[in-house]
Design a protein that fits this description.
- The chain has 24 helices and no strands.
- With 706 residues, the chain is mainly alpha-helical.
- Among the domains are: 117 residues; 155 residues, no CATH class; 152 residues, Up-down Bundle (Methane Monooxygenase Hydroxylase, Chain G, domain 1).
- Belongs to the SEC10 family.
Length: 706
């Protein structure tokens, strides 16, 4: 701890008796002074002792420092001497090494010609044996020395190639025969070693055969034996992948050029196994079953390209991508050349069959429906005037649009797009995709949707129909749904195939044209439907309401015989009319969208109000009958709220206020007529409602209203 003099003095005084007020002791300054003097003397003695010890240690340290410095100087001198010796030794070693290298070069210069001479002498000796016709050397007679014999005969064979045929024809034939025999023996040895699984022996024999003409035959034998027992399952592609993976691990241990051998194995698999398998699978259905043929072609091509992707992991040389692509092309070229023709033919027949099967299920025979200005004019005249200018097609409420048919057509086209993407040449892909798209447009848009629209336009009922038919609105609803599916397939499956080609603009234009054509017919149909809803369908609906009111409304409803025994809240005619109207409003909302809904509902609401207004004026009302009429109008007003049209609701609010004139006290008639809802109405209208009262002819009522 750091030394603090004040604290030290305090502790010393505290320990000294009489040095402080401790336990009641009196303070004794003399004793404290004496203690301080004695303690100072002790500190002085301690200081002298420590000082002597410090001086002694300093002297010892100086002495050791001098000795250490002396020792370091001696070591430096020794190091310099050793470094000089090392330099001398290094120079001497360099000198000796130079001499040794020079001597080695001289020995090599002497030994190389000597070795060549010895080798030439041996070859001459062996050549003489072939000249004599008798092979005596152990290297030719001992089967264990086949490697040395192969090396010798290979060299003799090269020498024999340079000799004139007329003088050495016999010896050349003998050497060639021995060359061939040894080559066959080596290949046989390689085959046996492969069957035994002796990789080291296979590597030795392959290294010897590398310089022989039959080396390629050795590779063929290896490839043939590798495939024995490799294709036992039904999945030839998986078997091929497993085989190549196994051989890839082994071929590098056996051959000096493993990539060439592996490439040759893969080529053999493609050109023999796969090509045979593909041919068997496709030729069976090529003429008889286009659907199965296309499915098999797509599946086989996909699995072949998948196998090719797996083989890309192996070392097959510099341009393995081109190598594998050529192999795939060699297998499928005869099938891919006319693929798109088969695809279009199948798609055309399949689509026609789907449509025909649907129409047959509906017992419907497709007919040719006239189009154009004259036909449209005739149709408009027929519907406005009810003149027999040609029969209206009775569809019995059938839209002739089927989501099942659409899904089937889109599914077939989707599969065709997928096959097109996989099987078409990249340069032909946009063109082929456009042809498939044209088939979709022809059968889905033209043969199905357009036919349904034409049939729907021709099936809109005439004005003398007893039932309102919103049939064409169902056609519009289903056509909109189908258009969404068509557009989704266009974006999801066609666009990726043509996005970067000039065909993109052509497809977009074709799509735009077909949609515009359909929209024209849809708009025309909707316009006609709205128009006919004004002149025909709404007439039918209003006619149906009139029929309900005429059949269900009784005169006694509003002038009951017993005024005091009326138990109903509203009449049966009101209940049935409101139920009918609500169903029609719901159907209109489900079949149309946008402003068309509001337009049709406004027209229907206005005419509905007019019908109820005119209907109420056909009866005379007692006091209780007037109350029942008010209840009926209140229910009609609730029904009008479903229209969600402000004008319609306002009309029924006014009608409800008019009905109050049927029950109000005569003295209050003027006050009610001047109310907010009735003040702006024509006085004749108010008078006409007041006249419906059963007590109208009383002088009092006439006086009050005049």
């Amino acid at each position: 701890e750091p030394f603090v003099a004040d604290e030290y003095i305090e502790r010393l005084a505290w320990r000294t008796p009489g040095g402080g007020s401790r336990g009641g002791e009196a303070f004794d300054p003399k004793r404290l002074l004496e203690e301080f003097v004695n303690h100072i003397q002790e500190l002085q003695v301690m200081d002298e002792r420590i000082q002597r010890k410090v001086e002694k240690l300093e002297q010892q340290c100086q002495k050791e420092a001098k000795e250490f410095a002396k020792k370091v100087q001696e070591l430096q001198k020794s190091n310099q001497v050793a470094f000089q010796h090392f330099q001398e030794l290094d120079e001497h070693i360099s000198y000796v090494a130079t001499k040794v290298c020079h001597l080695g070069d001289q020995l090599e210069g002497v030994n190389t010609p000597r070795q060549r001479a010895v080798e030439a002498q041996k070859l001459m000796k062996y050549f003489n044996e072939f000249l004599d016709g008798e092979l005596k050397s152990d290297v030719f007679t001992n089967s264990e020395k086949i490697k040395e014999a192969a090396d010798i005969i290979q060299k003799l064979h090269l020498i024999a190639q340079e000799l004139p045929f007329d003088r050495f024809s016999e010896v050349k034939s003998k050497i060639a025969s021995k060359y061939h025999d040894l080559e066959c023996q080596l290949i046989q040895e390689f085959t046996s070693a492969q069957r035994r699984g002796e990789i080291s022996r296979m590597r030795e024999v392959a290294a010897v055969l590398l310089h022989f003409k039959g080396y390629s035959h050795c590779v063929d034998v290896y490839i043939k034996q590798c495939q024995e027992g490799a294709f036992l399952r039904n999945d030839v592609f998986e078997d091929a992948a497993i085989l190549c993976q196994r051989v890839n691990k082994q071929v590098g241990e056996v051959f000096s050029n493993p990539e060439t051998v592996l490439a040759k194995l893969i080529q053999n698999i493609f050109e023999v196994k796969l090509q045979t398998y593909v041919k068997d699978q496709l030729e069976e259905h090529r003429r008889s079953d286009a659907e199965q043929y296309l499915k098999n072609l797509y599946d086989l091509y996909t699995r072949t390209t998948s196998l090719s992707s797996k083989l890309m992991e192996f070392n097959l040389g510099t341009d393995k991508q081109t190598f594998l692509s050529k192999l795939i092309k060699s297998i499928f070229i005869s099938y891919l050349e006319n693929y798109i023709e088969v695809e279009i033919g199948y798609l055309k027949s399949r689509s026609a069959m789907i449509l025909q099967r649907y129409y047959d299920s509906k017992n419907h025979q497709k007919r040719s429906i006239g189009t154009g200005g004259i036909q449209d004019l005739k149709e408009r005249i027929r519907q406005r005037t009810n003149l027999p200018l040609g029969p209206s097609i009775d569809t019995h409420g059938e839209t002739f649009l089927s989501q099942e048919v659409v899904v089937n057509l889109l599914q077939e086209t989707k599969q065709a797009f997928e096959r097109c993407h996989r099987l078409s040449d990249p340069s032909d892909l946009p063109k082929n995709a456009f042809r498939i798209f044209s088939m979709l447009v022809e059968f889905l848009c033209t043969e199905h949707i357009d036919y349904a629209l034409e049939t729907g336009l021709a099936g809109i009922p005439s004005s003398d129909s007893k039932n309102a038919n919103l049939y064409f609105l169902d056609v519009v609803h289903q056509a909109n749904t189908i258009f969404h599916l068509f557009d989704k397939q266009f974006n999801d499956h066609l666009m990726p195939l043509i996005s970067s080609s000039p065909k993109l603009s052509e497809c977009l234009q074709k799509k735009k044209d077909i949609i515009e054509q359909m929209e024209v017919k849809l708009d025309m149909g909707i316009d006609r439907q709205v128009e006919i809803l004004n002149f025909l369908t709404l007439n039918c609906m209003i006619g149906q309401m009139k029929h309900i009111l005429a059949a269900e409304q009784k005169k006694t409803d509003f002038k009951p015989e017993d005024e005091n025994n009326v138990l109903i809240q509203y009449t049966n005619a009101c209940v049935k009319v409101c139920g009918y109207v609500r169903k029609q409003v719901e159907k209109i909302r489900n079949s149309m969208d946008g402003k068309n809904v509001d337009t049709v509902l406004m027209e229907l609401g206005v005419r509905f109000h007019r019908l109820i207004y005119e209907h109420l004026q056909q009866y005379s009302y007692s006091c209780m009958g007037g109350m029942l009429a008010i209840c009926d109008v209140a229910e009609y007003r609730k029904c009008a709220k479903d229209f969600k049209i402000a004008l319609v609701l306002q009309l029924f609010d006014t009608l409800h206020a008019l009905c109050n004139l049927l029950v109000v006290a005569p003295d209050n008639l003027k006050q009610v007529c001047s109310g907010e809802q009735l003040a702006n109405l024509d006085k004749n209208i108010l008078h006409s409602f007041v006249q419906l009262r059963g007590d109208y002819r009383s002088a009092r009522l006439a006086r009050h209203f005049s």
